[in-house]
Specification:
This protein has about 210 residues and is of the alpha/beta class. It has helices at about 1-10, 30-40, 65-70, 80-90, 105-110, 155-165, 190-205, and strands at about 15-20, 45-50, 90-95, 120, 130, 140-145, 170-180.
């Protein structure tokens, strides 16, 4: 009951949580996330950066227990360090490289474990709502693709956009980056970095920053 109540009544802060989904340390996704959050800081909104590769957690096992408990109690792992960060931050930044036309396995497992934030009814088909909904939450999405053709990014942005819209976020902007693979090479593209900072500042402004 205590954990369930904490989800319902946890104070939402004007803060931006940046989540990196790349398994490669110091790569293009890391550079992008850094610059997006730099822009957010210029908007005088506090930020926190999280790299999913630094947390040990597994994918959802589909046990459905969280429908009753309101939080994942079947798996005791690093996701329980991430849940409070997600609840508290009104702003969210997600960055993932494209892996096989989609987000990374790290990002996919993270998103699947947010299933515990849904509330389902008992009718068929089940209606649902989100414990994160109606709280003014906003998100910014970014993705990096090695290939120059946009079709090769596949579902990367969509795989982040659809779940977070369902969870109650307004996706304010998306930043697709194409044709870059070499580690941290995006740092040599000032136009991309300027856009990343601009989007970060705009996200901060939309949350009440400057």
């Amino acid at each position: 009951m205590g954990e369930h109540a904490s989800i319902e009544h946890n104070q939402v802060m004007t803060k931006i949580l940046g989540i990196g989904g790349s398994p490669r340390k110091g790569g293009n996704s890391d550079v992008l996330l850094k610059h997006i959050l730099m822009g957010a800081k210029k908007g005088n909104v506090p930020t926190e950066r999280v790299q999913l590769r630094d947390y040990h957690y597994q994918s959802c096992i589909g046990c459905e227990r969280c429908r009753k408990d309101g939080i994942c109690k079947s798996i005791h792992d690093g996701m329980h360090l991430l849940y409070p960060k997600v609840r508290e931050a009104r702003g969210l930044v997600l960055v993932s490289p494209t892996h096989n036309y989609n987000i990374t396995a790290l990002m996919k497992a993270f998103i699947d474990r947010l299933y515990c934030f849904y509330i389902f009814t008992d009718d068929r088909p089940r209606n649902w709502s989100s414990r994160l909904g109606n709280q003014g939450r906003k998100a910014l999405l970014a993705a990096v693709c090695e290939q120059p053709d946009p079709k090769d990014m596949g579902f990367t942005l969509e795989a982040m956009r659809l779940p977070f819209e369902a969870l109650g976020y307004v996706v304010q902007s998306e930043l697709p980056v194409f044709g870059i693979f070499d580690k941290a090479k995006v740092a040599e593209y000032p136009v991309v970095l300027e856009k990343a900072e601009k989007f970060g500042r705009e996200l901060a402004r939309s949350l009440g920053g400057e």
